[in-house]
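Researcher: Here's the sequence for the chain we discussed earlier.
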Amino acid sequence: MSAASPEPPPRRRRAAPRARQNMRRDAVARPIGAAGDGARSSPGRWDEVRTAALATPVSESPVDFWGRAALWSILLYYGWFYATLDVYRSQTKVSIFDYIVGMANLVFHEAGHIILIPLGSFMSTLGGSLFQVLIPVICLAAFLRQRNGFAASVMLWWAGQNLIDLAPYINDARAQRMQLLGGVTGRDVPGYHDWNNLLTRLGLLEYDQTLARASHFLGVVAIVLALAWGGVLLLRMHRERAL
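Model: Thanks. This is the structure I predict for it:
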């Protein structure tokens, strides 16, 4: 009597669309560094960051997608507006959007001066401009940790806008003609102009225009990268909605 042939292993079934969507949601929701289920090899830090940067939030509501698309369009318009400004302009508020962004920048600028007072006069003076760029970068890192790549791309855009916003201030270090907070200029109140103080102490005052152009250029690069990043995520979100 011959031995019974072994039963074939059960076939694995593909996950249902709803299950696949839930798995994507779980992957998006897990912060960087959080332990996964089961024993598996942990990816490198760069792989985690790349995965987080390309993570797309899963939502069945079209409002979420089109809301992000509308925000991206606004950032595209104003990104072009800021990129085409020059470093010799005065800081002016030309729209509600520009006014809101400018006021937010001003709040963090002044907060930077105060928060860094314990680190000395130089760091307190630098703190205003430093915080304008540092706060968006911190928010970017926080959104990446939560695997919200689109929100992180918006923070990169904001950091770039701040670099462009700082360029006229840096460019004015020698001339000190720009009207500052309080309606005065650096010439009216000696020692009031941050970048005149900073570049004078560093012995770089003659390079104010070069540094201003560099700040503007880096800001434009950041905005272009942010828009490309956000655009790629929107395309991925659109394709996932079509599944």
